């Protein structure tokens, strides 16, 4: 079976309309048809159900995160600051990767400056995106 070219994941009203149109399919098939899947380097297709379900929740306008209920530490909001860990690693948290819509397996080229680190995303063909 030939697979069509991957589409940009649907959001908002277009997502709700497409899900309604596909009412007879399984939830995994709906997620795939709405663009919520990735293809690994080995050609294996993986449906991203969590992103699909979160997009549906957002499209319905349901607010699950409480903006006012913080624990005094800022919760999970991005502070745009990181600290070198005791083992020498820099950890970029999920708040940033979610904001950039990054997926597990996305690759980057690292270039180092005097006091900065620049990441350039590598596309599916191994080409650095500018």
Short summary of the structure?
By secondary structure, the chain is α+β, with helices and mostly antiparallel strands.
Structural features, described:
By secondary structure, the chain is an alpha+beta fold. The protein folds into 2 domains: 1-64, no CATH class; 76-130, Pemi-like Protein 1, Chain: D. The chain is 27% helix and 14% strand. It contains 4 helices and 4 strands, in the order H-H-E-E-H-H-E-E. It has helices at 12-21, 27-33, 49-60, 94-99; strands at residues 37-39, 45-47, 107-112, 117-122. The strands form 2 sheets. Strands 1-2 form a two-stranded antiparallel sheet. A two-stranded antiparallel ribbon has the order 3-4. Helix 1 (12-21) crosses helix 3 (49-60). Residues 68-75 have low confidence and may be disordered.
Give the topology.
Elements lengths: L11 H10 L5 H7 L3 E3 L5 E3 L1 H12 L33 H6 L7 E6 L4 E6 L8
Antiparallel strand pairs: 1-2, 3-4
Helix pairs in contact: 1-3
Protein name: AbrB family transcriptional regulator
GO molecular function, one term: DNA-binding transcription repressor activity
InterPro entries: AbrB-like (IPR027360), SpoVT-AbrB_dom (IPR007159)
Based on secondary structure, the structural category is alpha+beta
Shape category: globular
Q: Write down the secondary-structure element order.
A: HHEEHHEE
Number of helices: 4
Task: For this entry, give a set of tags.
130 residues; transcription cis-regulatory region binding; SpoVT-AbrB_dom; Pemi-like Protein 1, Chain: D; single chain; AbrB family transcriptional regulator; two-stranded antiparallel sheet
């Amino acid at each position: 079976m030939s697979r069509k070219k991957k589409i940009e994941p649907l959001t908002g009203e277009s997502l709700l309309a497409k899900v309604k149109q596909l009412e007879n399919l399984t939830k995994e098939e709906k997620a795939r048809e709405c663009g919520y899947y990735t293809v690994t380097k080995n050609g294996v297709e993986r449906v991203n159900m969590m992103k699909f379900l979160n997009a549906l929740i957002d499209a319905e306008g349901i607010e699950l995160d409480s903006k006012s209920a913080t624990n005094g530490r800022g919760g999970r909001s991005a502070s745009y600051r990181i600290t070198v860990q005791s083992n020498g690693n820099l950890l970029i948290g999920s708040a940033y990767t979610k904001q950039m819509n990054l997926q597990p397996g996305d690759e980057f080229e690292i270039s180092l400056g005097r006091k900065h680190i620049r990441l350039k995303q590598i596309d599916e063909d191994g080409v650095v995106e500018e």
